[in-house]
Amino acid sequence: MTVAPATLHQGQAAVRPALQDAVARLDDSTRAVVSYHLGWCDVDGHPIESAGGKSLRPSLAILSAEAAGGTQEAGIPGAVAVELVHNFSLLHDDLMDRDVQRRHRATVWSVWGSSTAILAGDALLSLAHEVLLESNSPHAPQAGVMLASATRELIRGQVQDLAFESAALVSLTGCIDMAAGKTGALMSASAAIGAVLVGAGSQVVEALSTFGAQLGVAFQLVDDLLGIWGDPGTTGKPVFSDLASRKKTLPVTYAMEQRGAESAELRAWMSRTEPPSEAELPHVATLVDRAGGRQWAIEETARRTRLAEDAICSVHTVERARRELIELGRFLVSREA
Amino acid sequence: MTVAPATLHQGQAAVRPALQDAVARLDDSTRAVVSYHLGWCDVDGHPIESAGGKSLRPSLAILSAEAAGGTQEAGIPGAVAVELVHNFSLLHDDLMDRDVQRRHRATVWSVWGSSTAILAGDALLSLAHEVLLESNSPHAPQAGVMLASATRELIRGQVQDLAFESAALVSLTGCIDMAAGKTGALMSASAAIGAVLVGAGSQVVEALSTFGAQLGVAFQLVDDLLGIWGDPGTTGKPVFSDLASRKKTLPVTYAMEQRGAESAELRAWMSRTEPPSEAELPHVATLVDRAGGRQWAIEETARRTRLAEDAICSVHTVERARRELIELGRFLVSREA
Question: Is ipTM > 0.90 here?
Answer without folding.
Answer: yes
